[in-house]
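In response to the reviewer comment on reproducibility (Comment 2.3), we provide here a single inverse folding case reported in full, input and output, so that an independent group could reproduce the run without further information from us. The structure tokens appear first.
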């Protein structure tokens, strides 16, 4: 394990959480510090909240072409209109359809990216919180787990070879998987189930907050396993934590007056949280590969990730994920990339 300035257990504490929220912020990358001229980026979930603000900040750094990847093209077009205000005529923003509830939509999106002249940055920001257990009719899985984990895994693996092939800059491309400190709070009661993934589809395990936290924990397991197999010479893969933010639309099904008041008192604005995503994409090189980033530096993931039990769970999850996504030949893709 990397030497951090805090233990995984300390970082997972309520004290550390409130200290981060109240007294720390992700670093701001000012125009002039980084020049993204000529580069192309994809940001998922970019019509609102963190994704929208992240897109705005990338454009402020001179990004030439932005792909807004959203489920609702009409909302994407509205975001495009907003983002183009005050921009140079040479700024290119395209709205591409991406439904993370559909494997067909994800594979079609990945296929479309092959038509790009170049691809430098992919920021997978899209995520959901569901108030109730909802089973995705096309995949048979819990929708929160589907969108926040399985679809993230599929899209990430499908885009990695394209990031490698289409990146013509001296520096390698960036794959940024937005994470959360709440992964450390997951009770993860499903851990003893075999198979593991199907346990998330059972009503007896569902709790809205716990399900979201667990989906982010699965994402940290995935980051660990993927980065061990795919070298940073293909793309730098990291996972920033934007912190608890208001104005993201993430908790629209679980909101309430008290929660919203607390979030306004303790939370960060979407613009501040989005700095973490931009920082991960433009300020960190191969040294950040496979790392969780918090307020501009590598920090420990959930304590379970570093435990022997967690290592076994990560490998079990990887095996089941490869089987679930076998239709897209994801394991073959990873094997080929591991040889780069």
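Designed residues, in position order:
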């Amino acid at each position: 394990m990397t030497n951090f300035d805090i233990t995984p257990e300390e970082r997972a504490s309520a004290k550390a959480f409130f200290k981060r929220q109240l007294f720390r912020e992700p670093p701001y990358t000012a125009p002039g510090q980084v020049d993204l001229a000529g580069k192309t980026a994809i940001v998922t979930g970019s019509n609102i909240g963190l994704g929208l603000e992240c897109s705005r900040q990338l454009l402020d750094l001179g990004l030439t072409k932005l792909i807004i990847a959203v489920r609702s093209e009409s909302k994407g077009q509205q975001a495009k209109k907003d983002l183009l205000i005050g921009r140079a005529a040479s700024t290119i923003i395209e709205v591409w359809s991406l439904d993370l509830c559909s494997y067909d939509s994800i594979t079609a999106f990945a296929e479309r990216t092959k038509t790009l002249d170049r691809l430098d940055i992919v920021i997978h920001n899209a995520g959901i919180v569901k108030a109730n257990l909802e089973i995705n009719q096309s995949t048979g899985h819990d929708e929160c787990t589907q969108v926040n984990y399985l679809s993230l895994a599929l899209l990430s693996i499908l885009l990695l070879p394209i990031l490698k092939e289409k990146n013509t800059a001296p520096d390698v491309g960036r794959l940024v998987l937005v994470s959360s400190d709440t992964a450390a709070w997951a009770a993860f009661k499903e851990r003893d189930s075999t198979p593991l993934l199907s346990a998330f589809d059972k009503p007896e395990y569902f709790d809205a907050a716990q399900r979201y936290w667990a989906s982010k924990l699965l994402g940290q397991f995935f980051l660990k396993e993927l980065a061990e197999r795919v070298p940073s010479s293909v793309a730098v893969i990291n996972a920033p934590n934007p912190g608890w933010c208001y104005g993201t639309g993430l908790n629209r099904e679980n909101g309430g007056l008290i929660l919203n008041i607390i979030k306004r008192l303790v939370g960060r604005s979407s613009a501040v949280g989005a700095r973490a995503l931009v920082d991960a994409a433009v300020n960190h090189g191969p040294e950040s590969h496979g790392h969780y980033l918090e307020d501009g530096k590598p920090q420990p993931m959930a304590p379970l990730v570093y435990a022997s039990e967690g290592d076994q769970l990560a490998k079990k999850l990887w095996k089941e994920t490869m089987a679930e996504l076998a239709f897209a030949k994801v394991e073959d893709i990873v094997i080929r990339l591991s040889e780069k």
